[in-house]
């Protein structure tokens, strides 16, 4: 974890033991999904992130910049909000939103999103506007499943699951996430702007722009 603190952000990392713990933590607090449904609305999360299963907000399609949260892991959502607060992720909107909600509210809101069906294929199919192309997917599929040992790119599937469904305690759901959002995150790790996942910095470090594009398309259609 500390190895990931490379870019002059050391001051922003709290000294609490939780910050050195591996991966995601929600402290075991699971929250209340029904309370979270109301709070997701009143705290305005749905305005940007969309109503899971109904519409996916601005996350969909080529212009989607906002992550889909429906079906995402509880602990992962909680950790990301903490990471925006702590400066390990940067985004003006989310830093503001993360600072404005209490930990209890975040636990409830995360419970609401986690209880929703995962990023539904029907909505993806409607909004992606691309046709599946085996040729285009070939190299991305190989990277996803096997990685590239020569460049020390680990197989994405090892941590994220064969269909990007996520592995609890290991890595979040990425299959069906918005294409542009996925691409943005990979760029952010490669550049160091996102510094909250040590495994991901390595995974993204040697990807080319073309590989990031291809992976984002492939994963968004899973
Ligand atoms: C004004 C728009 C906006 C609002 C309102 C908003 N968000 Fe976000 N959120 C974003 C954007 C943009 C991103 C992606 C940032 C990035 O590119 O790293 C994001 C990312 C996230 C992520 C990371 C998702 C992932 O897959 O890693 C979480 C978790 C999150 N938001 C939770 C919330 C919660 C909880 C609320 C309500 C309290 C909320 N957001 C309100 C714009 C918003
Ligand atoms: C060593 C395990 C590991 C490998 C290998 C790995 N990832 Fe990840 N990935 C993670 C973890 C852990 C996170 C969450 C980091 C955090 O807590 O912020 C993550 C997050 C992500 C995210 C951000 C999700 C979101 O909602 O913001 C994307 C996109 C992603 N990985 C794509 C990939 C791709 C593509 C590959 C293969 C090139 C890959 N990952 C390989 C562990 C891994």
Automatic annotation (TrEMBL):
<keyword id="KW-0408">Iron</keyword>
<dbReference type="InterPro" id="IPR009056">
    <property type="entry name" value="Cyt_c-like_dom"/>
</dbReference>
<feature type="binding site" description="axial binding residue">
    <location>
        <position position="200"/>
    </location>
    <ligand>
        <name>heme c 2</name>
    </ligand>
</feature>
<protein>
    <submittedName>
        <fullName>C-type cytochrome</fullName>
    </submittedName>
</protein>
<feature type="binding site" description="covalent">
    <location>
        <position position="159"/>
    </location>
    <ligand>
        <name>heme c 2</name>
    </ligand>
</feature>
<feature type="binding site" description="covalent">
    <location>
        <position position="48"/>
    </location>
    <ligand>
        <name>heme c 1</name>
    </ligand>
</feature>
<feature type="domain" description="Cytochrome c">
    <location>
        <begin position="31"/>
        <end position="117"/>
    </location>
</feature>
<dbReference type="InterPro" id="IPR036909">
    <property type="entry name" value="Cyt_c-like_dom_sf"/>
</dbReference>
<keyword id="KW-0813">Transport</keyword>
<feature type="binding site" description="axial binding residue">
    <location>
        <position position="49"/>
    </location>
    <ligand>
        <name>heme c 1</name>
    </ligand>
</feature>
<dbReference type="Pfam" id="PF00034">
    <property type="entry name" value="Cytochrom_C"/>
</dbReference>
<dbReference type="GO" id="GO:0005506">
    <property type="term" value="F:iron ion binding"/>
</dbReference>
<dbReference type="GO" id="GO:0042597">
    <property type="term" value="C:periplasmic space"/>
</dbReference>
<feature type="binding site" description="covalent">
    <location>
        <position position="156"/>
    </location>
    <ligand>
        <name>heme c 2</name>
    </ligand>
</feature>
<feature type="domain" description="Cytochrome c">
    <location>
        <begin position="142"/>
        <end position="222"/>
    </location>
</feature>
<keyword id="KW-0349">Heme</keyword>
<dbReference type="GO" id="GO:0009055">
    <property type="term" value="F:electron transfer activity"/>
</dbReference>
<feature type="binding site" description="axial binding residue">
    <location>
        <position position="160"/>
    </location>
    <ligand>
        <name>heme c 2</name>
    </ligand>
</feature>
<feature type="binding site" description="covalent">
    <location>
        <position position="45"/>
    </location>
    <ligand>
        <name>heme c 1</name>
    </ligand>
</feature>
<dbReference type="InterPro" id="IPR024167">
    <property type="entry name" value="Cytochrome_c4-like"/>
</dbReference>
<keyword id="KW-0479">Metal-binding</keyword>
<keyword id="KW-0574">Periplasm</keyword>
<keyword id="KW-0249">Electron transport</keyword>
<dbReference type="GO" id="GO:0020037">
    <property type="term" value="F:heme binding"/>
</dbReference>
<feature type="binding site" description="axial binding residue">
    <location>
        <position position="94"/>
    </location>
    <ligand>
        <name>heme c 1</name>
    </ligand>
</feature>
<dbReference type="InterPro" id="IPR050597">
    <property type="entry name" value="Cytochrome_c_Oxidase_Subunit"/>
</dbReference>
């Amino acid at each position: 974890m500390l190895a990931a603190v490379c870019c002059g952000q050391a001051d922003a990392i709290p000294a609490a033991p939780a910050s050195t713990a591996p991966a995601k933590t929600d402290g075991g607090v699971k929250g209340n999904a029904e309370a979270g449904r109301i709070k997701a609305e009143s705290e305005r999360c749905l305005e940007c992130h969309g109503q899971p299963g109904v519409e996916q907000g601005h996350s969909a399609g080529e212009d989607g910049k906002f992550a889909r949260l429906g079906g995402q892991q509880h602990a992962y959502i909680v950790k990301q909000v903490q990471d925006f607060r702590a400066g390990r992720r940067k985004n003006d909107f989310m830093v503001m939103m993360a600072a404005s909600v209490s930990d209890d509210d975040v636990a409830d809101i995360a419970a609401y999103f986690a209880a929703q069906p995962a990023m539904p294929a029907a909505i993806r199919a409607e909004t992606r506007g691309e046709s599946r192309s085996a040729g285009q997917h070939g190299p991305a599929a190989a990277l996803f499943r096997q990685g590239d040992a020569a460049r020390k790119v680990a197989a994405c599937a090892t941590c994220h699951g064969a269909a990007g469904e996520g592995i609890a305690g290991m890595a979040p759901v990425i299959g069906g996430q918005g294409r542009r959002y996925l691409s943005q995150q990979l760029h952010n790790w490669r550049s160091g702007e996102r510094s909250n996942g040590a495994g991901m910095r390595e995974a993204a470090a040697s990807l080319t722009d073309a590989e990031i594009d291809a992976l984002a398309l492939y994963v968004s259609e899973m």
